[in-house]
Amino acid sequence: MLEPVKDDVSTPLFEPMADLHLHAVKSTNEEDLKAGTVTDSWVSSEYRGVSTEEFVDAKTKEGCSQDCLFDIIDNFHQADLPTVPHIIDALYHAVMDDNYPDVLTFLTIGTPSCFTMEETIRAMEAFQSDTITSAKISLKGDLFFSKQLTGLRSDIIPTAPLNLDHRMMAKNLETLTPAAEKYGYRPVVKLHPLLQQVHLGRIPDDVFKVLNEHGALLVTHTGVFQGGPCTLEDGILDIDASDPIHMEKHASKYSNIDILLSHMGTPDKVVERYWLNRNKVVRHLLNAIQLLLDHPNIYGDIGGLMYSAPTDGNYGEEKSETEVDFTSRSELAFDSIAMRLNDPVRYGEKGKLLFRDKIVHGSDFPVTSITELKKQMRVLGTLGKGESVRRIKNNMAHRAYKLARKR
Question: What is the crossing angle of helices 389-404 and 370-382, to 10°?
Answer without folding.
Answer: 120
